[in-house]
Amino acid sequence: MKFFHISDLHFNPQDMLGLQNVEKVLQSVAAYKQKDDVLLISGDLLNKDFGDYRPLFDKLFALNMPFLCCTGNHDDSLCLIAALKNLYPAHPLPQSPHKLDYVCNDYPLKIITLDSYKENCAGGEILPFQLDFLEQEIENSHKPIIIMVHQFPLDAGLNFFDKKTAAPWRPKFVQLVAKYQEKIKLVVCGHLHNSVISHIGQTPVISAFSANWQADFDFAPIENLKNASRPVGYYIHRFDGADITSYAVAV
Ligand SMILES: [Fe+2]
């Protein structure tokens, strides 16, 4: 089976270019998807100036494939949880009413999603109880695991993400993944608005492209993050029962 992995849609119907890009990505997903495939959305579904999940969900429903969402720093945990409850009740819901942390056990891999949303904080936060939840779910899993979280949990070598908007929760998360690296097949994330790949021990960590706009690489410090005119895209992670092969698709 295949896990399609899209990220950072920053959906806002007023953003015409962004909308076109998101639609191109969804059309490409529709062309490749087969029965039993699943869509993972690693956060920033909406842009923060737009609060209605319905028009985006309508586009996702049209794909006719199950999807799993994760909050990004542009989403809002309460709004996304409410939208899922109202519009897509088949989606796994969290135990805590405030954080969209959940597990999906419907597939050959267990998906564990963590909600890093914190208002006005690009780096987000993962609280100790969430790491406890993660560890417990890893420990009691008989299946291999994919973890989904919005921010790239490692240094990306990029100033805006590593320094200006650093995520202080990263080292503890990394420690946990390292401890269970044999069980965790993949960490999927976004936030970097680029395809960036690293690893924690033997576990690959993959940030998908943004489906809306790509960021320029600020290896040297700059004042503000700039757009790069590169194609948008997404990932396909194909699981063959033992291993995952990941395909970058630029559109
Ligand atoms: Fe983000």
Task: Describe what this molecule looks like in 3D.
- There is one protein chain.
- The protein is of the alpha/beta class and 251 residues long.
- It has helices spanning 16-32, 54-62, 77-87, 128-139, 159-164, 170-179; strands spanning 2-6, 38-41, 67-69, 102-104, 110-113, 145-148, 184-189, 196-200, 203-207, 214-215, 227-228, 233-239, 244-250.
- It has a six-stranded mixed β-sheet with strand order 4-5-6-7-9-8.
- Strand 1, helix 1 (16-32) and strand 2 (38-41) form a beta-alpha-beta unit.
- The longest helix has 17 residues, at 16-32.
- The protein is globular.
- The model has no long low-confidence stretch (mean pLDDT 96).
- The structure holds fe (ii) ion.
- Fe (ii) ion (FE2) is lined by residues 8, 44, 72-74, 150, 191.
In short:
This protein is α/β, with parallel strands linked by helices.
Strand content: 15-25%
Question: Could you please say which CATH topology applies here?
Answer: Purple Acid Phosphatase, chain A, domain 2
Task: Report the count of strand segments.
Answer: 13
Read across the widest sheet, the strand sequence of neighbours is: 4-5-6-7-9-8
CATH architecture tag: 4-Layer Sandwich
Q: What is the total domain count?
A: 1
What small-molecule ligands were found? fe (ii) ion
Helix content: 25-40%
CATH H-level superfamily title: Metallo-dependent phosphatases
Unreliable stretches: none
Mean pLDDT: 96
Helix-strand pattern: EHEHEHEEHEHHEEEEEEE
Roughly how many Å is the radius of gyration?
Answer: 17 Å
Reported for the largest beta sheet, the result is:
6 strands, mixed
